[in-house]
Design a protein that fits this description.
This protein has about 350 residues and is α+β, with helices and mostly antiparallel strands. It folds into three domains: about 5-60; about 80-175; about 185-339, Alpha-Beta Plaits (2-Layer Sandwich), CATH 3.30.70. About 65% of the residues lie in helices and about 10% in strands. It has helices at about 5-20, 30-40, 45-55, 65-125, 130-175, 185-200, 215-225, 225-245, 270-285, 315-330, and strands at about 210-215, 250-255, 260-265, 285-290, 295-300, 300-305, 335-339. The strands form two sheets. The chain has a five-stranded mixed beta sheet with strand order 2-3-1-6-7. Strands 4-5 form a two-stranded antiparallel ribbon. Strand 6 (about 300-305), helix 10 (about 315-330) and strand 7 form a beta-alpha-beta unit. Helix 4 (about 65-125) packs antiparallel against helix 5. It starts with 6 loop residues before the first helix and ends with a strand.
Length: about 350
């Protein structure tokens, strides 16, 4: 259980949480409340460390900051717990499905045996045992009807188990998605990158990671508001989705205005071409006022590319791609740098 505080302790945490919320600019919503509550309770060390740095630097604890903290430090924990539950449900449903299948097979065999017995009894000649034969025949028919009902229920149960497993799989997939863009979220990205690292490197193959970031995104939010900021992120998400179409490639919203592209079996030249296409399409994107249709905003992105090296882990590969991204920012933005 995530929250185990007593009523007295939770009342004190509520007082601290509301006080903190009142001292900052973020809206009074469940996301802001959860972040400040977990901070006050001290149950989320990574969240507390991140918030401690932000507060020590005098950073504004606004809606954007609260959303980032929630997605990076609260949501992953919820997702991990859901994954554990999902795996256990899958195990239980597999057992139920196997049991239902075995029961169905046994019921079918028993039903066949009863049918054969019924035929044999019906063919028996009249004689001293005719009364007993008739009674046995009647009981056999009743048993056959009961077995048929059982088999029908087993079949229904198997269909329901199949539907539940499909629903669970869909829920697990949705837990890997960023709600704003529909792309993979950070957890989905981590999973795909780990898969790449486990399968690579193979001789003669190249694998790349692209990290990209919206230039001057804070200025977009400050000037045009967070709704326009969300439209920018959604627009870039759509560009990424339609530019990276190979089934083995993966696009994720890494956090805030930063995105990542995992490119298995892709050379540095091919990765650069993909990143340049995305950069050009983003620069051509025009955000319009929905009432007047006047163009109010254009944006650019900076990208960094790193190719997988022998001995790389997730941290070292991401660090090199981030360094290349930083070089693009330092070099004037709106460009692609390959490490």
């Amino acid at each position: 259980m995530r929250y185990t505080e007593s009523k007295v302790r939770s009342a004190e945490l509520l007082r601290l949480t509301l006080a903190n919320m009142g001292h900052h600019t973020a809206a009074f919503n469940p996301i802001t409340f959860t972040v400040w509550y977990e901070h006050a309770a001290g149950i989320n060390p990574k969240l507390n460390a991140d918030m401690g740095q932000c507060l020590s630097k005098g950073m504004t604890m606004d809606d954007e900051m609260m959303l980032r903290l929630y997605r990076e430090h609260v949501m992953p924990a919820d997702t991990e717990q859901m994954e554990l539950i999902a795996h256990e449900m899958q195990r239980l449903m597999r057992g139920m499905a196997d049991s239902a299948a075995a029961t169905g097979a046994q019921a079918g065999n028993f039903g066949q045996q009863l049918t054969e017995l019924n035929d044999a009894l019906a063919a028996a000649e009249d004689g001293p045992l005719s009364t007993q034969v008739a009674r046995a025949l009647e009981g056999t028919l009743e048993m056959k009807a009961a077995v048929d009902t059982l088999q029908h229920r087993v079949n229904q149960s198997q269909d329901e188990i199949k539907r539940l497993r499909q629903d669970l799989e869909r829920t697990r997939e949705e837990a890997m998605l960023d709600p704003l863009t529909g792309l993979l979220n950070r957890k989905g990205f981590d999973q795909r990158l780990q898969t790449l690292l486990q399968q690579a490197p193979h001789a003669g193959e190249s694998h790349c990671l692209v990290m990209l970031d919206i230039d001057h995104f804070k200025r977009v939010n400050d000037t045009h508001g967070h709704l326009m900021g969300d439209r920018v992120i959604q627009g870039l998400g759509e560009i990424l989705r339609t530019s990276v179409t190979h089934p083995s490639h993966a696009v994720a919203r890494y956090g805030g205005e930063e995105f990542a592209i995992v490119l298995p079996n892709t050379s540095r030249a091919e990765a650069t071409q993909i990143a340049e296409t995305i950069r050009a399409r983003t620069k051509a994107m025009k955000l319009r006022n929905r009432t007047t249709q006047e163009v109010v905003l254009t944006v650019t992105i900076s990208s960094g590319i790193a190719s997988l090296r022998e001995g790389d882990d997730a941290h070292s590969l991401i660090a090199r791609a981030d360094a290349a991204l930083y070089a693009s920012k330092k070099g004037g933005r709106d460009r692609v740098t390959c490490q």
